[in-house]
Write a structure and sequence with these properties.
By secondary structure, the protein is mostly helical. It has one domain: Tetratricopeptide repeat domain (Serine Threonine Protein Phosphatase 5, Tetratricopeptide repeat, Alpha Horseshoe). It is 63% helix and 0% strand. The chain is built from 13 helices and no strands.
């Protein structure tokens, strides 16, 4: 596993999931150039001062904090991250990870303050803007979140714009801005035709508009990538019912029921 941020990326699925099932994960940017690179994640770092180890090494602090987080030792991780907050090159990442810990602990307000602090520490960091926008959307402020996604997307150096576009589409839809949601999702699909959140969003959007042929097309693309997605199977079945193809609807319903018999109430075919 290369560099501590690779592990962070894998762990971020644990953060900000409540209420935003179709939103992309948080993203974490690479450490500042001031933090040295390595090909191996650092072992747990002893900050007690024994054996001549330094406590101001941003990379080591963050690598060790990540290691503790991965093991569920949040108090230990938080202790190191609080030290990292005093190192300018680590402030944004440390705040982001403290936000993740607060989220895991169910401290949504506290998490939001950390995600916002990361944007202050790195005002030109698009990933931090995306993260804060995601938190706003997940915590009842979907309209306000859009400005943060736009900030992230406005940076030409942003390496994962599809994530922000997918997030923005979901949040625009939540705020009642359907046309804007469509623009974001179509832009995401223009960059990545396999952007699953955007496909799911467009399938539901076209269904809600009564454009069932278009809903079918997006649902088929969605299920080609995630054939066992219950939401996708349910929408595809309902779409086929609207189109009058009860045989196709039944096939989708059978697949849904096979996932976990009795766990997914399904509409009767017409």
């Amino acid at each position: 596993m290369a560099r501590y941020e690779a592990i962070l990326t894998a762990l971020l699925g644990a953060a900000l999931l409540a209420g935003c099932s179709q939103l992309e994960r948080l993203t974490i940017i690479r450490p500042s150039a001031h933090i040295r690179s390595t090909t191996q994640v650092a072992p747990t770092y002893d900050v007690s001062g024994r054996r001549g180890q330094r406590t101001d090494d941003a990379y080591q602090l963050m690598a060790s904090a990540t290691d503790y987080f991965q093991r569920g030792e949040y108090d230990q991780s938080e202790r190191l991250l609080q030290q990292a907050l005093h190192i300018p090159s680590a402030m944004a990442d440390a705040n982001t990870m403290l936000g993740m810990i607060a989220d895991v602990r169910g401290q949504a307000v506290k998490a939001g303050k950390y995600y916002e602090a990361a944007t202050v520490a790195a005002p030109n960091g698009p990933a931090y803007a995306n993260n804060y926008g995601k938190w706003l959307c997940a915590n009842g402020q979907p309209a306000e979140s859009l400005a943060w996604f736009e900030r992230a997307l406005g940076n030409p150096a942003y390496t994962t714009p599809v994530a922000s576009l997918s997030n923005a589409g979901e949040c625009a839809q939540r705020s009642g801005q359907t046309d804007r949601a469509e623009r974001y999702w179509r832009a995401a699909l223009g960059m990545d035709p396999k952007a699953l959140p955007a496909l799911a969003g467009m399938a539901q959007l076209e269904f809600d508009r009564g454009n069932y042929l278009d809903a079918r097309a997006f649902s088929e693309r969605w299920l080609a990538l995630a054939p066992s997605d219950p939401a996708g199977l349910r929408l595809a079945a309902t779409t086929e019912q609207k189109l009058g193809d009860n045989a196709a609807a039944s096939r989708y319903l059978s697949r849904l029921q096979a996932l976990s018999p009795g766990a997914h109430p399904v509409p009767a075919t017409q």
